[in-house]
Design brief:
Number of domains of chain B: 4
Largest sheet of chain B: 8 strands, mixed
Largest interface: A-B, 33 and 30 residues
Oligomer: heterodimer
Order of helices and strands of chain A: EEEEEEHHHEHEHEEEEEEHEEEH
Distance between the termini of chain B: 67 Å
Radius of gyration of chain A: 20 Å
InterPro entries (chain B): ATP-dep_Glu-Cys_Ligase-2, CP_ATPgrasp_2, DUF403
Helix content of chain A: 10-25%
Shape of chain B: elongated
Pfam families (chain B): Alpha-E, CP_ATPgrasp_2
Helix content of chain B: 40-55%
Strand order of the largest sheet of chain A: 13-12-11-9-14
Number of strands of chain A: 17
CATH topology of the largest domain in chain A: C8orf32 fold
């Protein structure tokens, strides 16, 4: 599948601030056997005085940008064309859940893909009794690790309600789970806590999701948003699988990954620190445009949407109504 | 003299010194013989009378109090400062024994460097199975952004502390490695100063090794680290988390002692991969930071995003090799308690032999065999978090000791170990050696107490040893910092739970060569120019000046109010009404005899001063504290009228005492200029406000006299005009007289002169915006006649002064 991705995030600062410095993780990159980046361009307005791109520990592209003189607004733009390579399907190569602990212990190494980074507490997600009990109740005895991931994701999807008003970007997973409400970030964080609680190494993926307009209607430009889902380590041979609890499906061909980490703090799309007092507001608009692989022309008709405003602090959330808009395709 | 002093024949002061079975002692060896290194000290000490001992101890306490040494528990409450708990009797060790300790610890320091370099480099220790991957990955101190980053200068560790204790068999044992940001070196210096007051005699002094040489060598090493790759000199500084940290006093002390800048995260910014200090002269590059903040807080962009004390982009400067940190970010991973379970084996793998000074026996409960061992031997174990980075004796609530939980929460230790195995370690509950400590006698005051008000008893101790990397290898402080238990119970050592600290003397058989921090003279005397002033320090000095002046102004107004009240006894007197309203407009309620708003102003001043204690004389700080204490005491007792007026007179004397100290003693450099600038600006503004209200034609009769009184110019007015006050004479004296320090023109001229001495006051022959703003202000008041300075003009001046403040802020203070 071929996609054009467009993203705009606008920040307005209440008071102009000097030496604004941002760390941006928005650039998708090649993932062998999974996605290929044909073109990409990340730009900032006003033009930063400094920019240096590097790769972080987990292999994500990281752009550090800074403005020396005071600025009161920044616009971040991403344009990328990405080919998503079809996955191998839902073949279950994972080990029985009971054997997973031994498989983890046998892994010696601290490379970014090692399961050890994803087992215990990370800065924003710690296993907790409630989610561990929830996960235990969701899985059948004798299940494989992959079946356990799907079972927990499915149970969570059935239990939590998508609600943009219930949480903020800083809501802890415990609170979102107690409310049984939230957006993709909350679904993802709760599921990670639940999986770690039953011994499955689990991490956080940020990226883009193709959304489908309701039947017979055009696609709305700029109506999408960044998305988040879960990756879980299910054994030495099977390695990592990805599951989207918000939409109750494996992260298949509709998903373009940008960054991987232990939780949101490792992948935050825009991290910035301001010296000025006063808050900041942000707006974001995202388009994931499926293209005809032969002509590279958009596959579906689209019309401009009202500019999407989201809550402050660079919150990323899907605005698609999950069940209505996305056909289940596991 | 007797041949040997044993417990049985010890002098009276040591009558209660009873050795505990199975415990090593510093004073007596295993056979009950006094160790030779203590003998002369004990002989001399025993000759002292009870009153002499208490007088000497008090001299030491007084030194610490006057120097402002305190210990603060983590809290925002400034009154939480505790007196420094000095145990007056030092711990004495022979230089030969010390040399042995340092040799062993030097090996250990090299081992730690090898481990940390591996954890951020090849990670062979993990791959080869010598360290569990989950232990490293689970540590919050293992900082992923540092993986693959070569630290500037090539080393991770530059300054270390080791907490050591003596086992019952007499050998030494490492209880903890301090690699993150070891504290205590400054306190060791202060303890030494205090014991110098207590035991000033040539002996023992001449035989005690000095501490200064260590600091000199460390400072030189830091300066080398600060150099750019091409060998250019780089600035050095100490990075502190700020005044709410429990060892902030030490940071200010060390900064003053070593002559280094003391910075907080917001003093720094990053430009093009280079760390810069925000100074009054603009950003200036810096090459090395001795950090006293935990690494995770150093950069909110790449490390802990919740940090408010870090510098965005600092990690980037490290990655590019432009900034050296002592110690490198991520070094704290070595403090992870479970690390001690693996270090002995790693030492053998890397060096082929065991550690000369072993660490406390530790078992990581992630392994089944180790878990079983800890379970079976729980009765002689401390069991706690594997990831804890505090010392073994700083027991958290989640710790089991001797087979029992300190707090409930788990059904049994077995269950706990099974549930959280990999998150736990067991450590042998070691017994420490005891050392002499003075305790006041419980029966002091009775007949016997008259001759002996206290005695020496054995108390458990640990010693903190400091090491610094130099080009010649590790160098050790010849002395240290001992923690002394409050009771015989070895778990009582945590400072925050009421232990005390002692100086450590490393003693030679022969007199030692004196050392100081002053470098040996090479050629001619070279004058070192004072370093540049960080913008935040300038800002705090500026506001200190403003708040002190504002406080003085309020005190004088309140005094005037209560003097009138005492004279008229009529609160509805028109002048009293006007004064009350005027004070009210500043938030001061005259119905309170000692207004709480006045306390606030003093506290604001104290707050600013507290942030620049490294640039401030100890006397000045003491004067400010004295004023705050007096004010708080007075609020409880002062009554309206005469009593309040007298109280305010006391306050005037206290605050002018502080001002005098600053004016007389502070070095006339940038810091002093900003302090003076703040005071002058505030005084000009206060005078304008005073005249605008009380010299207004609409003001009630007698207001002009009141104006002159508040402006402390009664006598000058009498001498100059020899007439009753009139609006013209008052305005002439308080607004236009260039010789009266209580006049607006005087203060404007002072401001103008101060501005001219600030950096960048003129550039390419043009005045800076701030300097430019002063010109019309000065000329206007130079040429004005008293009648032109009406209320409207005065209010306009106040707006102009506010603009001057903004211009100064924009140019220098951020």
């Amino acid at each position: 599948m071929l996609y054009d991705i467009r993203l705009i995030i606008d920040y307005d600062y209440a008071a102009p601030s000097d030496h604004t410095r941002n760390l941006v993780r928005l650039l998708p990159h090649d993932l062998p056997g999974r996605q290929r980046v044909l073109s990409r361009h990340l730009s900032f307005d006003p033009l930063p005085d400094e920019r240096s791109d590097s790769i972080d520990f987990f292999g994500n592209e990281m752009s550090a940008v800074a403005w020396h003189a005071p600025i009161d607004a920044v616009s971040v733009r991403l344009a990328a064309r990405v080919e998503r390579i079809a996955g191998s399907g839902a073949l279950d190569l994972s080990v029985p859940l009971g054997d997973l602990g031994g498989e983890i212990a046998a892994e010696r190494g601290l490379d970014p893909g090692a399961p050890h980074h994803f087992t215990g507490a990370s800065p924003r997600i710690a296993p907790m009794a409630e989610t561990t009990a929830f996960a235990r109740a969701a899985i059948a005895p004798g299940t494989t690790a992959q079946q356990a991931v799907v079972a927990v994701g499915r149970a969570l999807h059935g239990t939590m309600t998508f609600d943009q008003k219930a949480t903020t970007v800083d809501t802890a997973p415990a609170e979102a789970f107690a409310k049984r409400r939230g957006v993709c970030q909350d679904f993802t964080q709760v599921m990670i806590a639940a999986l770690r609680g039953i011994g499955i190494p689990a991490g956080y993926v940020s990226g883009f999701l193709r959304t489908f307009p309701p039947p017979g209607q055009p696609r709305l430009e700029g109506a999408d948003a960044m998305h988040a889902w879960v990756r879980a380590w299910v054994g030495r041979d099977a390695g990592w699988i990805e599951f989207d609890p918000t939409n109750n499906q494996f992260a298949g061909e509709d998903y373009i990954a940008v960054a991987f980490g232990r939780d949101y703090s490792d992948v935050a799309p825009v991290r910035g620190v301001l010296r000025s007092s006063g808050g900041q507001n942000s707006h974001q608009a995202v388009d994931v445009i499926p293209l005809d692989p032969d002509t590279a022309q958009p596959l579906v008709r689209s019309v401009p949407a009202r500019r999407a405003g989201t809550r402050a602090e660079s919150d990323m959330e899907t605005q698609a109504e999950p069940d209505a808009a996305v056909p289940p395709e596991i | 003299m007797t041949d040997a002093v044993s417990p049985a024949s010890a002098p009276d002061l040591f009558a209660d010194y009873r050795l505990m079975p199975g415990v090593a002692d510093e004073l007596f060896d295993r056979d009950g013989e006094m160790r030779p290194v203590w003998r002369r000290f004990v002989e001399r000490f025993s000759l002292l009378s009870a009153s002499e001992i208490s007088a000497r101890f008090e001299r030491g306490n007084l030194y610490l109090r006057d120097a402002g040494v305190f210990f603060r528990q983590y809290s925002n409450d400034p009154t939480q400062e505790r007196e420094w708990p000095l145990s007056h009797i030092p711990v004495i060790l022979h230089e030969d024994e010390w040399a042995g300790i340092c040799r062993g610890l030097s090996e250990r320091a090299d081992l730690l460097e090898a481990v940390v370099a591996d954890l951020y480099g090849d990670q062979r220790l993990v791959r080869d199975g010598h360290l569990p991957a989950e232990l490293v990955a689970g540590s919050r101190q293992w900082l992923r952004p540092m993986v693959g980053v070569e630290p500037k200068g090539g080393h991770y560790l530059h300054f270390l502390a080791f907490e050591i204790g003596r086992s019952p068999d007499g050998s030494w044992l490492v209880l903890g490695d301090r690699t993150q940001a070891p504290s205590g070196a400054g306190f060791a210096l202060e303890n030494r100063m205090a014991t110098g007051r207590i035991f000033p005699e040539r002996f023992p002094r001449a035989h005690i090794h000095r501490l200064a040489g260590f600091f000199g060598a460390f400072r030189a090493a830091m300066e080398r680290l600060a150099q750019s790759p091409t060998g250019q000199r780089g600035a050095t500084a100490i990075l502190t988390p700020g005044p709410s940290n429990d060892t902030y006093y030490e940071h200010t002390y060390i900064a003053r002692y070593l002559g280094m800048m003391l910075l907080e995260g917001e003093d720094l910014l990053v430009e093009n991969g280079q760390a810069m200090v925000r100074t009054i002269e603009g950003p200036r590059p810096i090459g090395m930071l001795w950090r006293r903040i935990d690494a995770a807080f150093a950069d909110p962009l790449e490390l802990n995003p919740d940090s408010h004390i870090g510098t965005p982009g600092l990690m980037e400067t490290v990655r590019r090799g432009n900034l050296a940190l002592v110690n490198a970010l991520g070094s704290g991973v070595l403090e992870t308690r479970a690390m001690m379970a693996f270090l002995p084996r790693i030492a053998e793998v890397l060096t082929g032999r065991p550690l000369a000074i072993p660490n406390i026996a530790t078992w990581w409960c992630g392994g089944a065999a180790e878990r079983a061992y800890v379970r079976d031997n729980a009765a002689r174990m401390m069991i706690g978090s594997a990831y804890a980075v505090d010392l073994p004796f700083d027991l958290g609530a989640q710790t089991a000791l001797g087979g029992a939980f300190r707090s409930t929460g788990h059904a049994s230790i077995e269950e706990w170990l099974e549930a959280e195995g990999a998150g736990l370690v067991g450590q042998e509950a070691v017994t420490l050696s005891t050392t002499p400590a003075w305790v006041e006698s419980p029966d002091a005051g009775d007949a016997e107490g008259a001759t002996r008000s206290g005695g020496v008893v054995p108390r458990p101790m640990t010693v903190r040893v400091f090491a610094a990397r130099t080009p010649e290898g590790w160098t050790f402080m010849k002395g240290g910092y001992a923690r002394i238990g409050k009771t015989g119970d070895a778990t009582a050592l945590a400072m925050q739970r009421g232990g005390s600290v002692a100086d450590v003397w490393v003693v030679s058989d022969r007199p030692v060569k004196p050392e100081t921090l002053v470098p040996a003279a090479h050629g001619d005397f070279r004058r070192v120019s004072p370093g540049t002033l960080p913008a935040r320090a300038a800002d705090n000095l500026y506001w200190l000046g403003r708040y002190v002046e504002r406080t003085e102004d309020a005190i004088r107004l309140i005094r005037a109010y209560h003097l009138r009240l005492a004279q008229t006894d009529n609160p509805s007197d028109a002048r009293l009404q006007l004064l009350g309203d005027y004070l009210d407009s500043y938030g001061i309620d005259v119905d309170e005899p000692f207004p709480s708003a006045l306390i606030d102003r003093i506290e604001w001043a104290r707050g600013c001063a507290g942030k620049v204690r490294d640039r401030f004389s100890t006397d000045g700080w003491a004067a400010l504290n004295d004023m705050a204490r007096t004010a708080r005491r007075m609020t409880r007792t002062v009554r309206p009228g005469d009593d309040a007026a007298r109280a305010m007179s006391v306050m005037v004397r206290k605050i002018t005492g502080f001002s005098g100290l600053v004016h007389e003693n502070m070095y006339r450099f940038s810091g002093w200029r900003f302090l003076s600038f703040g005071r002058a600006l505030e005084r000009a503004d206060a005078l304008a406000g005073l005249l605008a209200t009380f010299a207004d034609p609409a003001a009630p009769e007698g207001s002009l006299d009141l104006t002159v009184e508040v402006a402390d110019s009664v006598i000058t007015h009498q001498r100059r005009y020899r007439v009753e006050t009139s609006r013209d004479t008052v305005v002439d004296l308080l607004a236009l007289d260039a010789d009266n320090p209580r006049s607006i023109l005087f203060q404007i001229q002072r401001l103008r002169r101060l501005v001219a001495e600030l950096p960048r006051a003129t550039e390419h022959g043009r005045l800076s915006p701030l300097a430019r703003a002063m010109v019309p202000l000065e000329s206007a008041f130079l040429i004005a006649a008293p009648s032109e300075i009406d209320t409207g003009r005065l209010n306009e001046l106040r707006r102009e002064l506010a603009r001057v403040s903004d211009l100064a802020g924009a140019a220098y203070l951020r």
